Amino acid sequence: MAFCAIVAFWFTNSLMAQTSYILNGNCESKTAWTFGLKTATSCVVSYENGAGNDGSVAVKCVATMSASNKFCVLILSDSIFIPNQVETKLSFWAKSSVANGRILPTTQAVTSSKLPDGVTQFPYYDISDELVPLEWKRYEFTYTTINTVGYYSQVKFRNYISGTLWIDNVAWGDASASGVSSAKASKVNLYQDLSSEMVYIDGVEDQTTLKVYNASGTLVAKGRGTKIDVSSLVAGYYILVPDDNAGVSFIKK
User: Mean pLDDT in the chain?
Assistant: First the structure.
C-alpha cells in the first residue's frame, strides 16, 4: 500500500508523546490554563507568584457558587495521546481558602480535529473526587485510562469551591516515566523509501525503541533503530512514538 507521508511535528507546549508528562503543569510559564464557567456564578483564573507549594508560581481560581453542587472547570490545555491499556499516573498539589473544599480531577478527549475519524463525542474519565484542605496537599493516582484511551486528552479539575483554589505541579502521563525532564526536546522527522514499506525517522539514536499506535490507542507495531516496517498495517491514521521524543503522526493509504 502507498504511504502518505508525513510532516513531523513538535509542540513545545501542548502535544507530548505518551511516554512524557505535560509541560505546563508547574505553572511557571503562566500559560495553558483556562476555565469553563459551567454552573458557577463567576470564575476568574490567574497566576500567583510565590504561592506554589515550593514557593513558585501557582494557578489560582477564584469562584462563586450560588448553591451546593455548582461548579466551574479548571482546564490544563496541554494534551497528550493516551494509548490503550497503559498504566497512567496523575499527580498534583492543591489547597483551598475554605476547609474541605472539593475538586474532581478528570481526563477528557479534546477537539474533534484530534479524535479518530467518525468520533464526534468527547469521552471523559473521572479519576477521583477529593477534599482540599487549607494547606498544600499532594495527590497522586495511578490507573488505566478507560473512556479516554486512544485520544488526545486533557486534565480538567471540576471545582466546587466557593472561594479560592490553588493548583500547582500537575504531572500526567505514563506511570513508568520519570517526569517532564525525560522528554527529549529534539525535532524528529519521518520519510519513506518509495520502493518499500519502511518508515524512516531522523533525529533519534540507533537503539531508539519505536512504537506505532493506531487511532484507538492500540500498539500495532514495534521496532528499534531509525526505521520500522509498516507493511502489515492497514490503511489509516497512526502515531509513531520514538522513546522519549514527541509522537509523530502519519497516514497509511
Answer: 78
Q: Are 3 and 234 in contact (CB under 8 A)?
A: no
The 10s digit of each residue's pLDDT in 214-232 is 766 677 888 888 888 888 8
Name which of 96, 106, 88, 147 is nearest 123 in CA terms.
Answer: 147
Cell of 220: 500495532
**CA nearest neighbour of 95 among 151, 47, 154, 165:** 165
> pLDDT of 123-151, one tens digit each?
888 999 999 999 999 999 988 776 666 67
Which grid coordinates are listed for 206? Answer: 540507533
Question: Is residue 210 helix, strand or coil?
Answer: strand
* pLDDT tens digits along 151-194: 788 899 999 999 999 999 898 877 765 433 333 334 556 666 55
Domain limits, the chain: 3-12+183-252, 18-177
Task: Evaluate whether 25 touches 74 at the Cβ level (below 8 Å).
Answer: no
CATH class, range 3-12+183-252: mainly beta
Please provide the CATH number assigned to the domain covering 18-177.
2.60.120.260
CA dist 120 → 85, 109, 113, 117 (Å): 22, 10, 10, 8
3-state secondary structure of 113: helix
> How much is the pTM?
0.67
- Residue written as grid cell 472547570: 73
**How far apart (Å, rounded) are the C-alpha atoms in residues 210 and 226?**
8
